[in-house]
Amino acid sequence: MLQTLLIGEQNSIRDILVETLNKRKHMVTVMDSTEEIPGDIDFSEFSLIFLSSISDETLSFCRELRLQPVGKQIAVVTVVDPDKPHQLDNVIDAGADQCIIESIYDEKRLHVRLAFAEKMAQEKVQQQITEQQLRESEARARSILETTVDAIITIDTRGTIKTFNKTAEKLFGYSSKEVIGENVKVLMPEPYKAEHDDYMDHYLKTGERKIIGIGREVTGRRKDGSTFPMYLAVSEVKLPNQHIFTGIVRDISEQRRLEQEVLRISEHERQRIGQDLHDGLGQMLTGIGLITKNLSQQLRNQDNHLAEEADEINSLIKEADEHARTLARGLVPVEFEEKGLEAALERLKQNAEKLFDIQFSLEVLGKLDFDDATQAIHLYRIAQEGVSNAVKHGAATKVSVHLASTEKHIRLRVVDNGTGFSKNWDAEGGLGVRIMQFRARLIGGNLEISDVPEKGAIITCTIPVINHKSK
Fold first, then answer.
1. What is the pLDDT of residues 225-283, one digit of tens each?
2. What whole-number percentage of the chain has pLDDT above 90?
3. Domain range spanning residue 422?
4. How far apart are CA 11 and CA 17, in angstroms?
5. 133 and 175 assigned to the same domain
6. DSSP states of 220-262
7. Residue 317 and residue 220 share a domain
8. 3-state helix, strand, coil in the chain (%, to 5)
9. Axis-axis angle for helices 253-275, 307-331 (nearest 10)
10. Confidence (pTM)
């Protein structure tokens, strides 16, 4: 049942409207003029307002009603005198929704016009409810956006930043005004900044996802130029006239620091074991070898038949000594201390060719300069694991390692001709893959694994130069 307000001087038109509205089950409040309207009246109680007579006062009332917030949700219907057609322009200008002219005297037509008016009133009420719900929803979304502990950033298909919450401001050092409207690349270091547009275009054209809906660890860039490791989860929302991406960012610097400390201790223990193998077990085996060699010589001088067994023992001791020293070199590449990463990779090449009987090519471009020696060690271990993985799991017969240094980044790439990785390698990756990813993260880098178009796999680790070189 609709609450209806009818304003107009008492005459036949008003009487017809009151009678018809009552038949249609309206709750009608009738007033002779706008002057009778109480000052404290609550217009939100009414869904329909009828102006049965047109005057300067009723037109003024209509205009003032439309200026009020509540006026947008009320349908206003006026009755225009057919002998005064000029009134039609006035009531439209005043903001009336519907006009009744000749049909006021035709009961069937009047019922039809009133049915349209009722539908209009219901639609206005529903629209107001919908708008209120939308405002409340937006308020809740803004509240969540501004109070969440994670940084939340939204961009469009061109990479333009649309929203940037308070946590994002603290994390990246930018105010929202500084970055909204800018390309999201401003939050990325090289080489990811240069590659972002290609990734976006590739996804929009092919639908192939690398981050969207998956989440991964990447490197962010603050306003002051410093970089930090972060976990990025990206979701996609397709609206009728808008296509946006929402990124949830979490700073994992402390987590990486703890992991790096664990790995540093692990590396220290590895070096200790390697040193013990070399200086302890290796020296002992060398000494035992000298003793058995002298014993063998004495037995031979005495024509003792045990001389041959002594020779065999001596050979086994030499073999064990060489194996122990090979293990020690694998645990602690001595080349790092003398000639650096390039020499260690050259030793890796020699050992791989000897142990695995494969073709191994090594290419080093640019000058390698590390502030922290552990970065070189991590890159070496990634190369070592990549080569081992290619041979043991990929059955590769050819492996190439490329190491290049530029002003912007250092990039290590291991390429093989093996069977490659499965499509779900990221989810199914074994311990070796996870350790490579772990090492890459600790040095502020990014590890990517992909298949060679023909056959095989490519493992790429990229480290931004800003992470390990002073400006």
1. 888 888 888 888 877 777 888 888 888 888 877 777 777 777 677 767 766 776 677 77
2. 16
3. 340-471
4. 10
5. no
6. EE-TTS-EEEEEEEEEEEEETTEEEEEEEEEE-HHHHHHHHHH
7. no
8. 55, 20, 25
9. 160
10. 0.45
